[in-house]
Amino acid sequence: MIRISLPYIFTLADQLEPLAALPDQPTKYGDVFVRLSVAEYALSQLISGLYSPYLRSSLDLSQHLLANLRAQTSNPDMDRQLGPYELLSIKSTYEQYKVALLAELASPSRQNDQI
Asked: Given this model, what pLDDT does residue 1 score?
């Protein structure tokens, strides 16, 4: 099991979970900008930070999700429309990542290091 700070996990969940509630219809980027930006920052900190060496099975999905988020946040046009496919791609990848991360956090670690 990965020993990880419980307040950190609650904060991470608070920052990533709004991705699950992205709209299903075309939406102005400005309306979802904060959710996407906060999630991008939180995820980039997780996979490049203190816990990154311990996250193995969720790493590919985290990088895929991060790429999806960056594809949207790299364009600063707040008035552009995000289509349902773009939003669904983020939501779907997030749901897959969430399952992988939760399973990884609950599984025994190969290393008995304590964080």
From this structure: 54
